[in-house]
Amino acid sequence: MSRRAGWEVRSSDLLRREWFVLSGSILIVDDDPGTGRLLAVLLRHIGHEAAFVNSGRKALEYIAHHRPDLVILDVMMPGIDGLEVLRRVRENPQTADVPVVMFSALSDPDFREAVRARGANDYWVKASIDFRKLEERIDALIPPDRLSN
User: Fold this and answer.
1) Mean pLDDT of the chain
2) HSE (CB half, 13 Å, CA atoms) of 97?
3) What is the distance between the alpha carbons of residues 122 and 112, in angstroms, rounded to a whole number?
4) Helix (H, G, I), strand (E, B) or coil at 94
5) How far apart are CA 86 and CA 139, in angstroms?
6) Confidence class of residue 148 from pLDDT cuts 50, 70 and 90?
7) Which of 43, 45, 62, 123 is 20 to 30 A from 130 via CA?
8) Whole-prediction pTM value?
């Protein structure tokens, strides 16, 4: 683990598979450290590099400097919330095409559609995410030609 500019960054070795697959760099943004770290561990287990930050401000800084292959972004956070981070990412020509998954406890279907209309690539409800299908969902969001490694 290394710490730079307030970011907790851990990288993992690429897991061996039947075919060669490059890992993707994924940023997790959540004000709950337990949730963020657990998701990072799971992502590393399936072969991705994962970084975790705990605020919208840190997320915007990280995205600008590292341009991850995918951002998993909590909706409800103090300060700059996930919807504002999403808006700024989409408005910036340098980051507009970075896939963003909103990750929230809110399960309202109307809210989910409203978030997608704002530019989110997907919406995952924290309580109902199927971790067995996590790899499949991530692979669909990060095509091989977008991988940073």
Assistant:
1) 83
2) 7
3) 9
4) coil
5) 21
6) low
7) 62
8) 0.81
Length of the chain: 149
Q: How far apart are the first and last CA of the chain?
A: 19
Taking a C-beta distance cutoff of 8 angstroms, is the pair 76, 107 a contact?
Answer: no
Task: Quote the CA–CA distance of 62 and 32 in Å, as a whole number.
Answer: 18
**DSSP letter assigned to residue 21:** -
DSSP 8-class letter at 18: S
Among 11, 46, 5, residue whose Cα is nearest residue 27: 11
| Sign of the CA dihedral with 108 first, then 113, 119, and 125 last | positive
Place of tokens 């991850």: 68
- The answer to whether 51 touches 98, Cβ cutoff 8 Å, is no
